[in-house]
Amino acid sequence: MERYLGMDVHAASCTLAVISETGRKLRDFPVETNGQALVEAVRMIPGRKHLVFEEGLQSAWLYETLSPHVEEIVVAGITESRGPKSDKRDAYGLAEKLRVGDLDKSVFKASRQFTRLRELSRIHMTLVGDVVRAQSRIKSLYRSRGILVSGMDVYGVRPREDWQKQLGSSAQTRAMRLYDHLDLLLEQKKQAESDLPREASKHGIVRILETAPGIGPIQAARLVPIVVTPHRFRTKRQFWSYCGLGIVTRSSADWIQTSEGSWVKARAPQTRGLSRQHDRFLKHLFKGAATTVVTQRNKDPIDARYQRLLDGGTKPTLAKLSLARMIAATVLRMWKDEEEYDPSEGSLPWGILVRFLVIGLCADSPLLSPTRHQLRRSALRPRRIERRHGELPPRRKRESSGQ
Fold first, then answer.
1. 126-163: pLDDT as tens digits
2. Do 51 and 70 touch, CB atoms closer than 8 A?
């Protein structure tokens, strides 16, 4: 007996709606937004329970609290609703979409993995933003009094008195309080920057990802609790879209008929920017990593690839975007293989293919030391190429189970 539960969540109360596997509305009732009350309400519903609610402030807590008491729990992405609206309608609508498999998108949750690392990462991220705001307030105070400020000298401890003397007596008190606030935030930020790597050192994957080009200890420690597992993404293109680095194209009226009666492509799809639904921090992280690689100008193969793009006439902004995509693909492959980055082996998306072909030819060479996953991929790659070119019959589709 299957039961599909939709829950509309609010700060004080939740509306729980239940429908059967045939779509019949069974009951709906309000529940206090309290862990114990919600667990009791879910347990009193008989049958195999499938629960769905929308992404929000309480979604991670609800997922962690209710997942042991249901067969399936889904966090749905927020979508725009039109027409009549109420808590009851929303709850039944979510339950029906879960029953027929019509949810537009679901949000990944893994609240029990990297819990402490995730909280320390959020603390560090919050403090970094607060420090930037406090520094902006100090500069705004001086500029409002017609004093030109630039650089970081205005935040130093020693030059403060000289800067404050340029202000009037009424503004000096405000500047003193802003400086005190900044000192407190800087002290807390320093503590957070020591706590985060200490916790990250307990996880071996963080130490591996630190070796990626442009990725440091702090960035790796903040990356891991967001992605949680690389196996969420089957290919690098899915990871690019999640990071906001996937290219979006649009086309219409794709085919035209020639005078001979055959159909040909009218034109190439037009690029319309990058994917908009993404994790903003990951996009900032990989673009920052690309900037780090460009400014350091070391002998890394990724930097050589960037220089070749510039020499070929690519705009610097697009070349840096390509660099960020290469770093993201490299990090994903390092994470799946659990191998550190080695520039001498060409651990790049385009270098990985070359390495696999060499492994296929020289699998007995002790210098290459391929892993089990690399040998398996190199063994499967030729059959995929032969099947693509028609040398092998197409793979038979798997028959549905009928469920």
1. 999 999 999 999 999 999 999 998 889 899 988 888 89
2. yes
Judge contact between 189 and 182, C-beta under 8 A. Answer: no
Could you state, in order of their start, the residue ranges of all structural domains in the chain? Answer: 2-100, 115-202, 212-248+271-345, 348-393
Architecture of the domain delimited by 2-100 = 2-Layer Sandwich (3.30)
| pLDDT range class, residue 104, cuts 50, 70, 90 | confident
Q: Which long-range contacts (CB under 8 A, 24 or more apart) does 259-264 make?
A: none
Amino acid in position 363: A
Q: How far apart are CA 26 and CA 329, in angstroms?
A: 48
Reply yes or no on whether the pLDDT at 60 is more than 80. yes
Q: Residue 378: which residues within 8 A CB-CB, separation 6 or more?
A: 356, 357, 359, 360, 363, 370
Residue 78 has pLDDT above 90, yes or no: no
Name the strand (E) or helix (H) holding 5: strand 2-9
Q: What are phi and psi of 289, to 5 degrees?
A: -65, -40
Give me the amino acid identity at 250.
R
